[in-house]
Records
---
Amino acid sequence: MKIILMLLLLSTWVFTQNVIEITVKGISDQQNDGAQQDRLEAILDAKKQACEKAGITIQSTTTVENFQVVYDLVETQAATVLLPGFQLVEIGYVQDGTYQVVLSGKIKLLDEESSISTKEMRYAKSLRDRGKHSECEAILQKYIDSEDPEVSEELKEEAFYYYMKWGYAWSIEESFQKFAAFYPESKYLSNLESFSTFAAKPIYVHDQTYKSSAADWKKTEFVHNEITFTKRIGLVADTIIFKNFKKQDQSILLKVTLFSEDGSEPRTAFHFVLSYFNGDVTSPHSEDDVKVIDDRFSVFQAGGSPTFQHSSTGEEFADYNYTRFHFAGEVPVGRGPFQQRLQFEIYQISF
């Protein structure tokens, strides 16, 4: 039987170590070509979907008349992205006359940023890689809003996509709705829709009460802005591990130290440090692997409120921005026992 398929596989073959689990349904065409042929068509469809989910773009440009050639071509590409251990479950013929299979397993993702083709986007990426986020964001925004006829719709679409992917959109849900309205046929739409749903909810909520006693205060001599603090207490020292959008483990290190000076109305202060492991959280690490996100020291004047609170948009690292971050609690003064409550939420706004 002669089957005409239009295929061109475009890829850069540069893969990251990102791995995801997939489940896809392969469906044959509705022409009854015999069980063996229909089964191969369904398998071809399933593996082609796996390739597309891994980031290999398939476009219709080349006519191939020999089905076996097409099948072997997709098999070759699928073997590159499908990890060993995947399963192929045969459903068989269904009511509409198609043959169906279900493929499930793990695939390696193509690093799409390595295949950016336009010089404008390559420059924007170079700024981001160097930590020049305000400049990168400004360039992306310029292309998104451009009315210059020389700026192609493809460039506008790509700039909008990376504007969201790189974490510059404050409201992910609102930006996604706008993107979907402008580019309803975009190849990025499915990925952005999944992320916008994920990003709408906090990936971590911290709400814990910490207890200590007067005996936990240690003698010290710490000077800050000409104030000498004579006592300190380690309130919190936690390592928090949670799953990111790619279902990978991500960690943050939370450390809060309280300080106090002697006196009838002692002044108090807190030192807050939020950091993360730069690498595999399950492996041994050195001080160089710990990167600080936020580090600040705040003093409470005598007679002032014992309540501390802090808000911050945070700083970008790896796949994350921390946004809408807030913590609050009571600073212990005088004699113990003491009790402090810390509350904050973390959202992922880039991926």
Note: Residues 1-17, 59-64 have pLDDT under 50 and may be disordered.
---
Amino acid sequence: MKKFTILMSMFLMVTCSDDPVVGPPPEPELVGCEAAELYNWESLSFSTTLGQDEEMWISFEVEELAIYSVDLDATGFECNIYDQCDPDNLAVGDSLLRSFVTTGLDEVEMGAVTPGIYYLSMLNTRNRADFNFTINITDIVLGCMDDNAINYNPDANIDSGLCEFNDCNTEWYTSNYGDMIMDCDGNCSPANWVGDGYCDDGYWGIYDEDGNVIPVVLMCEEFNWDEGDCEEITGECPVGQIEDCNGNCAPESWLGDTFCDDGTYEFEGNQIFFNCEEFENDGGDCDGLDRTSQQRVLPNGRILIAQ
């Protein structure tokens, strides 16, 4: 009988205690770069979905010096690449290596990347989107990348700094043609041919020391289109981009992508307009919004872009 009484007392002492259970504190939830999933560059390719204004972080380890590029086949993702995860300094930009906005068409070059761990944030600024992401690696080829040089290497992707150029100040050239310069193609040209009333677009040439006729080309931006002797060649948009209603380059994929490009969105610092007759009101994206399909032009050619 005594034994039962003792055990019952011990049971009551244990079960009736008000003391809280003591244990380790819960781990804080990781966010931002600290929550980034680590990939090895050899397998850094995946497909996923991001909602509008949703951000995703990944990290990847580079194991050898090479040239890297990011390929993300969706439009309007704001991306930042950092060389360290330092949450307190990310906004300051101490560790920021590269910022870019994806067009959905072109790879973004990161250049030569040294071994280490890097962090990438991707913020979707447009509608919810499915996308494929890949980091591509290219072997480094050292060489002269100046196409005006004698030893220009068209396969080089990192400049060696060892370019060699024609010597235009030899006695042969100066005694026959006076002061010499290098033209748009790196060939020797008389300095007084610039802006002399003739368009030097390769139609005219001079003799070199071996008696060969060398064409002279001064028709380039470097020489202000032969100081006005030649007609300026207007620039073209890069591959995958077209001129909008106002002549600014923008991703061709923005046409008919369900967003009305009426100046609301910017690309490379320019407000983009596809809401004109030429582009069928942005492929119909701007239909039914009670917005004019023409830009209002004010005196002196000033275009009103406010809606």
Note: The longest strand covers residues 129-138.
---
Amino acid sequence: MVNGTVTGVLAENGVGIAFGIIEAIVFASWALMFAVLLGILVTVTVMRRRRLDRLARTPPAPSADPRLPALLVELRRSDPHFDPELLLEAAQIACLVMFAAQSTGDEQVIRHLAAPSFWRTFFGRYVRTQARDARVQRAAPKDPDRASSRQARLPVDYQATAPELIGLELGPQQRACVRVSFYQLRAVVAPGARAQTAMASATSLSSLAVSLGAVVGERLSEAATGPSWLSWEGQYDLAFIRPGGSHTDPDAAVASRTCTTCGATYRSELATTCANCKASRPLPWGEWRLADLTPVE
């Protein structure tokens, strides 16, 4: 009888100790997650503050072409429904979908917005390469011996603000230039992550190309995986083109919300086709397509 009592007490003590260990593990896990989230919040806040301080100290780049008002008047004579605000919206959305393509590997939306010539530019090739890497990483088996399984990109912060129409060219092919202040922040764990961070701070195409070469070199040499923050900021000029003589459809903004073929509502702002009838979705800004993107020196 005594032995049974002792055994029961020991069993109860063992269960109590086990539950105590489990509670300690759960508490430690929550504490670690809270610490990580707090660290991310502090990092984002500090980097954003530094970015704002740098922007405040940086003299503004030359703005709009002085001929722009006259060119707008001329364009509106041939295209009375042309609305510059639609181009400003196009520039912000283009920045968003390029960021999304690099983070998720989904190029469908940016291909819907971009002209074929965009993919022959430096940034077009860069977006395509980053999107391909994101798809490979997502599809790779969870093998600790594979480099692709040691790569991770976590989008943390994104902004595309202050769009401004600064240039317009008329002729057989119309061209409009919109300047956007762009900022993104990602946590990166990958071979060459630190070189990617250096590339993000580049202010010209030549320095971008040099930094990109360093990233490729580190990956090919199987450099050690390391964590880093990828912060990309600055002003960028987005060039949009359309055929000369094009006319803006005043109903295009409405047509971009509801399918004109079957009447179904598009499931998201970034949908490129109708989920019901598969018809291609028209863009609110008509035939304008992204042709190039260049950093402002």
Note: Residues 2-57 form the longest helix (56 residues).
